[in-house]
Amino acid sequence: MLNQSDIIPKGYKKCSDCGRILPETTEYFVSNYNKNRNRYYYKCHCRECGKVRSKAWRENNTDKYKNYYSEHNKTAQAKESNKRYKEAHREVIKERKKEYRQKNPDKIKAYDKQRRENPETVEHINAMTRRWRANNKEGVSAYNSQYAKGNKDYFRAAAQKRRNAKKRTESTLTAPEWERAKKHFNYCCAYCGKKTVHLEQEHLIPLSKGGAYAAYNILPACKSCNSKKHDKEFSEWYKTQPFYSEERENIIKDYINNLVATAL
Question: What is the CA radius of gyration of the chain?
């Protein structure tokens, strides 16, 4: 690199911002194509000063910057470019994200909460979680075991609360009735229609809201649907789900209404 006072020799260029005289190559200057003159040329400022300019512009034009990249990232060219970059800089991106999460825990917490409450993104998050758990079964098992050991009082209290709720309500479901319920829904989840070996007993009206442990209040459900519904009302919860089906909703209502009529 030459000093500012030196005469600019051939093959060198002076940065308009910092005044340094640098080799006129792509290592120090950005090369752009001029359509009118049909040739490439180097920008007047060096790469380092270009970064400073770009950062200042982004800070002063936050909305424009977000809108531009929001639209730009939808293009096929941008998607392909982002894919190549991510594949080539996997570890760098991983460390950068880790560092950001450590420095901004409150922002990350608020962002995650917003995504989990958004119907458009919650299913995507759940799918990613399921894939991760499926690919890390040993780690998940070890974590769950460790968490259970460290929170024994919590699990004891939760189990006791559930037992007490069952004692206070009607508890008449029999093994044949449970088998009949699974058979009625073709051994699939009554809510999403997923076929699974491990169906769980889901309370249409939650125990916490006075629901009975009886045939007319028990539906076969996959683990995911059972966890999602939790203590929510069926009529409100089901219609907000991405797998909602009016046909399955009517089948559920007919099944429950027939059992209620029989019980009466």
Answer: 30
The whole-angstrom separation of Cα 231 and Cα 214 is 17
pLDDT per position as a tens digit, 55-67: 999 999 989 888 8
In this structure, the number of other CB atoms found within 10 A of the CB of residue 209 comes to: 11
Contact predicate 243/191, CB 8 Å: yes
Measure Cα distances from 127 to 94, 222, 247, 263 in Å: 20, 14, 24, 39
One-letter amino acid at 248 equals: R
Per residue in 224-264, pLDDT tens? 999 999 889 898 899 999 999 999 999 999 999 998 888 76
The backbone region for 213, taken as left when phi is positive above 0, alpha when psi lies in -120 to 50, beta otherwise, is: beta
Cα 96 to Cα 43: distance, rounded to the nearest angstrom? 29
DSSP string, 128-196: HHHHHHHHTHHHHHHHHHHHHHHTHHHHHHHHHHHHHHHHHS-B---HHHHHHHHHHTTTB-TTT--B-
Walk me through the domains of the chain, giving residue ranges and CATH numbers. 1-77 (no CATH), 171-263 (1.10.30)
What is the distance between the alpha carbons of residues 32 and 37, in angstroms, rounded to a whole number? 12
* CA 19 to chain centroid: 47
pTM for the full predicted model: 0.42
User: What's phi and psi for 139, nearest 5 deg?
Assistant: -65, -40
